[in-house]
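Friendly challenge for the regulars: who can give me the structure tokens for this chain first? No prize, just bragging rights.
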Amino acid sequence: MNPRETAAVRRRYDRNARFYDLMEQPAERYRFAAWRRRFTQRIRGPRALEVGVGTGKNIPCYPREVDVVAVDFSPRMLLRAVRRAERLGREVAFCEMDVQALAFADQSFDTVFAAFVFCSVPDPVRGLRELRRVCRPGGRLLLLEHMRPESGFRGRLFDALNPLAVRMTGANINRRTVENIRRAGWRMRVEDRLAKDVVRWIEATAG
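First reply, four minutes later:
Bragging rights claimed.
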């Protein structure tokens, strides 16, 4: 884990927090909101963990019978998630925390989940291993992620555009997230391609 890189990403998200929802509004209306609702059916309890909660866009999807802990390493993003939960009347335990170094005991959660997070984690494999550590045996990982296309030309195009994307948004557009999940020791169960091979819904199990 590179502390300097992590601090730079945190500063970028703190800077963008005020405008984050506005920037994503077109995509949220067009597709993201519908994709997020899938979490409602798939989160299992009694305890679940969302990492990279951001401004809290997944909070309406939390099943009411599940106790959810939500973390983010950007304090300004986290503050907006807290305010969203208050507006919605939802009880959520919020923590400022980095997925690369989670302060939870082993096997603490039945479900761990994230949406569009592992494109910006400086060491994604480390973060995914941390999620596996805190997930109970037989528990599930749920991810909604965008990643590098598999086709040669489009993949090279995403590689070429990635430095610009990172400077503008903090997100990498050429992450090989499926490979990273396997490297972290998860067992892949579901891989649905929602926008060709760029956005995917992923379910994996621990142990």
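The domain at 3-205 is CATH 3.40.50.150 (Rossmann fold). The chain has a mean pLDDT of 90. Your move, everyone else.
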